[in-house]
Fold this protein.
Amino acid sequence: MLSMGNSYAGQLKTTRFEEVLHNSIEASLRSNNLVPRPIFSQLYLEAEQQLSSLEAGSRADNEEEEEEEEEEEGSESSSPPVSYQVKPPPEGCCTTDGFCQAGKDLRLVSISNEHIEVPSGFLLVGAKSPNLPDHLLVCAVDKRFLPDDNGRNALLGFSGNCVGCGKKGFCYFTEFSNHINLKLTTQPKKQKHLKYYLVRNAQGALTKGSVICWKGAEFRGRQSLASNCSSTLFQLPESSGLSGSTSSEPLPPANPSAPAGTQQTAAAVDPTPSTAAFSSAVYNGKESPKKQLMKNNLSALTRPSVLGTLTNPGPPKKRHKGWSPESPSSTETWNFQLNPQASNRIKNDGGSLSSLPHSALVGPASSPMVGSGEPVSVPDNLMKICKAKPVIFKGHGNFPYLCGNINDVIVSPLLYTCYRNSQSLSRAYEQYGASTMQPISEEMQLLLTVYYLVQLAADQVPLIEDLEQIFMRSWRESHLSEIRQYQQAVPQAFPPVPSHITPVTSAQLPWLAGLAASSCNDSVHIIECSYSLAEGLSEMFKLLIEGKLMKTNYVVIICASRNRAIDSCIVITGKYQARVLSESMLSPSDYQKEVSYQLVTGKVETLGSFFSTLCPEGDIDLLLEKFYQENQGHISSSLSSSVNKPTAVNGAGAAVCTSYEIERHQIRPFQLAVAQKLLSHICSIADSSTQNLDLGSFEKIDFLICVPPSEVTYQQTLFHLWHSGILLELGLEKEHLTKQRVEQYVMKLDAEAQIKFKIFLQNSMQNPHTLFVLIHDHAHWDLMSAMHSLYPQAELSTGLVDRLLNCREVKEAPNIVTLHVTSFPYALQTQHTHISPYNEIHWPSSYSNGVDLYHENKKYFGLSEFIESTLSGHSIPLLRYDSSFEAMVMALGKRFPRLHSAVIRTFVLIQHYSAAMMAVCGLSQMKNYTSVETLEITQNLINSSRQCPSGHGLMVVLRIPCIPLAAVAYERLYNVRERLALEDNFEIILGNPNSGITIGKHFVEQLKIWQKIEDVDWRPQTYLELEGLPCILIFSGMDPQGESLPRSLRYCDLRLINSSSLVRTSLEQELGLAAYFVSSEIHTEKAVVNDVLESDPEKLSSTDNEDEEIATEGSTSEKRSPMKRERSRSHDSASSSLSSKASTFCTESSPPQALSNSTEETTNNYERQKQKVDKGAQTTISKHLPPVTEQLDMKQNIKSTQVSITSSSSPPFSSSSSSSAPTHNSFILQTSQCSMTKASKQPPIVFLPKLVYDIITSTDSSGLPKSSSLLPYHSVMWASSFRPLMSKMMTCTEQSLYYRQWTVPKPIHMDYNNRNEGRMDTFHPRRLLLSGPPQIGKTGAYLQFLSILSRMLIRLTEVDVYDEEEININIKEESDQYYHQPGDMWPDLESFKKMPFDYTIHDPKYEDASLICSKLQTINSEDRSMSRRQEDMYTCRQTTRMRLSKYAAYNTYHHCEQCHQYMGFNPRYQIYESTLHAFAFSYSMLGEEIQLHFIIPKSKEHHFVFSQPGRQLESMRLPLVTDKSEDYIKSPTFTPTTGRHEHGLFNLYHAMDGASHLHVLVVKEYEMAIYKKYWPNHIMLVLPSIFNSAGVGAAHFLIKELSYHNLELERNRQEELGIKPQDIWPFIVISDDSCVMWNAVEVNCSGDRKSDYTWTERNVSLKQILQHIEATPNVTHYALIGMRKWSSKTNSAEIKEPFSCCHVHDFLMLNVDLTQNVQYNQNRFTCDDVDFNLRVHSAGLLICRFNHFNVMKKQIAVGGQRSFHIKSKVSDTPVSISPAQYICAPDSKHTFLAAPAQLLLEKYLQYHSHRFFPLSLKNYSHPVLSVDCYLNLGPQIAVCYVSSRPHSLNISSSGLTFSGLLLYLCDSFVVASFLKKFHFLKGATLCVICQDRNSLRQTVVRLELEDEWQFRLRDEFQTANAKEDRPLFFLTGRHI
């Protein structure tokens, strides 16, 4: 069995999981793509579809496997086998047969009694050597690589050992076969040479065992399909001779004792059920006539396949890289060579089958007798007699030679290819049981073909796609029973055969075929011949000449004899069918040439003379001339008066049509959504670890838009670009734009494109910090490979896309992103595409589960809506065909067989239009010479301008693809119009893609008046500017190239499109011309949305991420008039993100009862409305219309004025930019007569050829239009005909994956050579594909994308920093004494010691913290309660957006070349390994040893000291105080962080200006892994797990303790080196994770007096600041050094004193030596820095703030303090808990909270401390006395801090009376005598806080509190924690 096609189509739903898993592993092993195939997607596929899961990248590889097996079995192939070069054996090794290269004997006879060691999992097998036919060689092979009993589940590859010399580990069978001296001449394959299992017999000797079942049975030969042995299912495994090498004799007779029931007589076979196999298909839109009958007979299904031929269930073999799955080109015409051998061979791409006869590909060897048969002579006058060239499709077997008049027949291999391909069972089905699965038999194929032809109507043409699907279904349905049975039963080697199945034999075939054909009124004629096809062909020619086949469309010739396979061919003799099929074989360029040739040589003149004979009044031209003479001077004035009158509108209120409105450029919600999707794809490319796009390195955007070489499309794109304002927004151009400047950004893909493109490439190289976006619009146009366009006859422009966009410079430039934009992406979705499936963006669908996703006030009308309008129940079908036109064309086709049908169709249609014009002008007798449809078009066109006071009219598009024919049509229609004096009534425009638009002066003037254009030289350059012009646009060119049409389009006449080349892209792009936007208020159809509407073929259902809601800024747009239709603007301006919140879709806006309206009601309403309008009731304005002016948003008006960029001279696109008059309310009083307004009620009407209409409107079994299953593009082909059907439910993403799996590019396609050349994939990382239906607004979307991408790049370089003024400035003591000069660089130690400490907190983040009092302050008792709420702290703090400087700190999203190594992500450097080191030290306060862990990357180990033998971490190296170096920072930096692995600013490379520094991240244990992942090259200090729920105090505490311990270790270590302890550097830096930039103030004291100075602030590196501070004289005398927080409002007074003695926050240098005895409180969550500052000061240590330095802090919305959520411990449901619930009475049943006790305490005191200290509320002169700690009691309570330590500095409390006392966890330094020194108000309150109730009581006793304070039992509280969470307890009391 030869197979062709994709070898891995997919699995069925009920397959066992292990098998799917196994096959998935195999598929991924076999595929070059490393992405494993999803297993679950295979398991849940629908059983009814039973087709395939979309596995991209798999190729058909069964072809070459089969070839090799044929060779081994003695194939009939006459070609030599593929030569195989054996590697020469190593010198001196043994090469004797039967011995391995080490010289050990391997023959079974020699070593059968020896003991052979077999590793576990290995089996002994016997290998056959071609040179030793009688011997088996013993090998040991891993059993995983051998098949199981059913011939399945063998893994790919090989693993074996040599049992002779014992050599192990052969991984390739090639290598192993060389080692055991197999000496092969063909590619070594384990399937061929490993033959038998070896087993030990009773005597213990090795003997030959069972056959290795590679195929499920050793029964591979092809049986004669004609002989009786077809019913013999099983033979002995050893049976041989099933196909002799070149045997032509019949095969031996079958075993007569065949299983009962498998053989029946021919007469008993009922032919009807066999058609059940394909009855469910719909052919050409018609259901099979026998369908109902067959449904009942399914159980008695005659089996349409032969049981003898078995499929291959074995595992897929390795693929040869060179094999390519191309099949012979389907459009190729086969001319007959005289070489007798050549005509019966077909070139097969597999290589070794190049000369197999046809039948050899699907059946046994053909008998050589046929070859000697006499040639068939084609009769001489065939064409004349038959009026058509018969098309002969080769079928099965041999085809005779033709001679004689061979120009009058066409021979095609298309059917033969289809037959051969459908023999190739896809691998997906092979797992369902080897022995019962065969391909569909040749007899059955032919019978199904006959059934298919029989049910075709007379006007239908056979489609090869239909036939492929029939074969597919037939095969699948005939095997369903076995598949199910196989899955349910225990797998056996030979499952039982269902008894009722009988194959069709070749003897029965002609009889069954005749029976089928008997019902079709002789449209199918069967000729049976007994000897060879030659007889049948001769007979057929004879019958044709005799005229006996007049009614016959198809002749099927069958030659079936008993001793060999069938020969067959099918001849298309129907004139219409033969013509269509022969014309479909012409390529587009051949089609053009043929038509031009017929025009040039005058062959069409016979047609013209024939037309003139039709008209009884004589020649039409004479009639015209006569009409012209009679009516000259009379008719023109009456006609043109209606046109000319309104053009001169007087100011006195003459009737003027107000329906003319130029649409403003607005961005629609859909376009914004798509632009945002594009942006997110760009971001995901940048975020991936592949470093393919470094967005952070780009400062601006530049772009180039490539469009096809159509002048109109080019001008249209310039127009959109001009009005979008994008060039100004991106800063690419200045205010006064000229057309020449805009042209720089759009490139026509023509001969001059290369110059513009070269400039683009040069710009991209010269500006590495600009991101260049290369937009390839209409990207499906010209995908020709540049290699193929080098032929001299090719046009210069073909292959240009490949040459430019795929050039090396574009592929390699890191700053070029390519965006392909197209409505028809299929050709860019093949197996070799450059675009990753992850980089595809599909236009979102408007509905998801019936919900309208994006509210728009316009409804798109595309292909699916047009198709829906043809369904029954709709008022007006928008798709139509013209039956009388088709009938005339068919009749003429028979009369003029040699003329191309395009010529005939064009001439008939011109004739119809001419006659219709004459009929409208009064020559009513001409009505008989046109069709009703053409008359309707012409009538409406001519009358349209008469009905409107301003002369607005309709556009009719007449599509004539062939340019020479279009020119003929234009000339003819132009002449008729002149003769009929209609030249002022409507214009005829010849739209040629290569030239601009030319229209008459009269019409230009009209357009200028309507559009209010004053420019004298203005001419319309796009079709959109022809709005309202009555005209026939003859649209020529083989393909539309993206031209948009205006809203006044009413008829789209596509009757002349090339219907013979049926390709999905071609059909859809022709229909795309009519795509429209309709105002969504219009009820053109029923209100109920039909399901067809939801599944557009272009955008089936919704795609993957289409359901994202987008927030759009916007203004309410004006309500549109219900009567208004809008032409799609595929650009709607991207100038602003003001997208209007569109009104809801009609289904939602219509009242509920409208939904249930019947069709009749809807139609009646429609008619009534129409009548009302026709009466001219101008006053009836629709009720839905509110006053428009009120609704207009000011913003919109402002925006529209900005958009119209008017330069000083008149702008080139002034059609709408300078038109000021028609405002939004211009349509309020629309006059009813204007036909343009009437036309706007619904989309245009489209006329199609009947053939195309049938294909578009018929659906396949899944409900998808048949056009969707056509070949997607002419330069791609199907990878296999054995492919699943597309499904109606497929999303765009799934469609893309379908095409990526099932299509391959032809050699002429530019992606053909894009194959895996050792790379992981062939996708280009910076390529994107945007696809969306035609005319939907893709241009507007990508221009908007450029806008938001530009904004994002600017945003990437900006950051929000806190910008707040210092607080409590008014409390600061205003001292006249200054201790330093403004310009001093460092503090003077002696002067600094004299400075008083400023207790007040000035940091704005502590705005809601308690004020700290000192007696120096005279506190203003103003109300400080105006503070913010807790949650406002983060949302309402004031920020400013700042541009990042080159010295900024960055988060993980920053990638740049310089810091790749620093970050540890660059693949060019080694992977950063890290080691984990434990570091322990004891700490008495915690009462236990602390064990910390360091994670140290290899690159940072030089900062640490390790013990030599065990590599134990000993200490962190510290420098000396005296060290001076510009290149490094002495102080190690510690950054505590939580929840900010992505957003924390830990990349200090740029901030440190590249200087060497030691940076340690301090993280919690549970976050270690995630931080390690994001920051692989950073040192981590991991806190012990007990601190997982601790706050920042714990981190600060451990940093400081660790640093002091390390200082001591370093002092001891360096003391041994002779260094004094005091010389070791004692400082560390503790920095927040949000410090982003640092600034320095430079003071200039050049004034006359010392007090005069000026200052400037500039951004500096952190290195500069730290080195400056480190260089401070006597620096080791300072305990804490910090800096200001940046604020834009800093005033001179703040920096007049360059140094302050006050609190420091956020970024500080800490002297761990001086502060040895002052600790951070490890329990604290908030204000721990204030608490620590106060302790340091009270210990008599110096705190210095450098006022000339400041730090900017970035606003980070995640992590930090906010990562603590207080929630209930009982339920998981998040309930908000107020701070009042944070404490409770002990032993109460209060809900316990899952939060640390300390956090609950701090939060409670912050919000509810007034409950404990009622007297203190707003009583700032009587603060609360707080001993040894600072706790925030809220902004309305002031506190006074005192330290109980001996010798500590405290404020003098004499004269102060306190309103409360706070004792928090007080230690033994607090004694009763200490407290007695302070005075309290009467009724002051006390709060004592302790760890437990016991210590609470002890404290009260120890401090003798009961002497002065009164306690009550109910005054005891605890935090709302469970006992195991160790709550804090507090006691309150009142002063007596």
Notes: The mean pLDDT is 77. The radius of gyration is 45 Å. DSSP finds 56 helices and 59 strands in the chain. Residues 1115 and 1140 are 5 Å apart (CA to CA).
